[in-house]
Write a structure and sequence with these properties.
Strand order of the largest sheet: 2-1-3-4-6-5-8-7
Strand content: 15-25%
Low-confidence stretches: 1-7
CATH topology: Rossmann fold
Number of strands: 8
Number of domains: 1
Largest sheet: 8 strands, mixed
Structural class: alpha/beta
CATH class: Alpha Beta
Radius of gyration: 19 Å
Order of helices and strands: HHEEHEHHEHEHEHEHEH
Mean pLDDT: 91
CATH superfamily: Thiamin diphosphate (ThDP)-binding fold, Pyr/PP domains
Oligomer: single chain
């Protein structure tokens, strides 16, 4: 392949499939999909070097809308599947797409341990504070006093704080972006992919169908007033006063990514069978 042909191929369009997204009009996930393809193009990757993994939910449609290798798994298990892919094929770039319901509720345990294990992959969570696919069910990040047909008095439960949990569990990169800023989101995702270890990017992505008041998010999001830190204790202190609308990279660490013993060694089928002999 010539240099010219590589340059021609590395565009966001190269990462988009022929399937047309079917999200609701105004959904922030359209913008996040655009940001993901822009980030991959910025890094000059090619589709067959990338795997996009997801679970269940509106945001989890993303693998079908890209031309990369994709895996659409079961609810909450995207990180488990992605970990297997990256450990088995460490040369591939692994991006995981999910939502606040899929990632923080049924997938919460996988989220904690993916941060802890620090396998080199990037987790992009589109957080709209609601289950859109189940028509307005409260999620772990839904405000406790938000009323709906499913929870007419609100949940009364305190909010799940994804950035604080991810940092405490050991994620090596922690950031927040806003779907209304696709270029800024693309830059953060590209930085996350480039950072070794487990990178976590929360993207505030409005669901204007079931939470029309979220249209106002564009008026309250703002660049974080503090610079990125490599000190987890300092990052934790900053999160104590965070209201969920500060945008930017909070933490970028230097933990060595997990690498499975023996990965890369050529082994025969007979060798593998011997390991499982009773």
């Amino acid at each position: 392949m010539t240099t010219t042909s590589v340059i021609e191929r590395i565009t966001p369009a190269a990462f988009k499939s022929d399937y047309k997204p079917i999200w609701c009009p105004g959904c922030g996930d359209y913008s996040v999909l655009s940001s993901v393809t822009k980030a991959l193009a910025q890094l000059e990757l090619v589709p067959d070097e990338v795997v996009v993994v997801s679970g269940i939910g509106c945001s989890s449609r993303i693998p079908a809308y890209t031309s990369c290798y994709g895996f659409h798994g079961v609810h909450g298990r995207a990180l488990a599947a992605a970990t297997g892919v990256k450990v088995a094929r460490p040369e591939l770039t692994v991006v995981v797409a999910g939502g606040d319901g899929d990632g923080y509720s049924i997938g919460g345990n996988h989220f904690l341990h993916a941060c802890r294990r620090n396998v080199d992959m990037t987790y992009v969570v589109m957080d709209n504070h609601v289950y859109g696919m189940t028509k307005g069910q409260p999620s772990p990040t839904t405000e406790p006093d938000w009323k709906s047909k499913i929870s007419p008095w609100g949940t009364g439960a305190p909010l799940f704080h994804p950035l604080a949990i991810g940092l405490a569990a050991g994620a090596n990169f922690v950031a927040r972006a806003f779907a209304g800023d696709p270029n800024g989101t693309a830059a953060i995702i590209a930085q996350a992919i480039n950072t070794p270890g487990f990178s976590f990017v929360e993207v505030i992505s409005p669901c204007v169908t079931f939470r029309p008041e979220q249209r106002e998010w564009k008026n309250v999001v703002r660049p974080s007033p503090v610079a990125t830190t490599r000190d987890p204790a300092q990052a934790a202190r900053r999160l104590m006063s965070d209201d969920g609308f500060n945008i930017g990279v909070l933490f970028s660490g230097d933990r060595i990514p997990y690498r499975a013993p023996g990965v890369g060694a050529v082994r025969s089928v007979n060798d593998l069978e011997l390991e499982f002999e009773l």
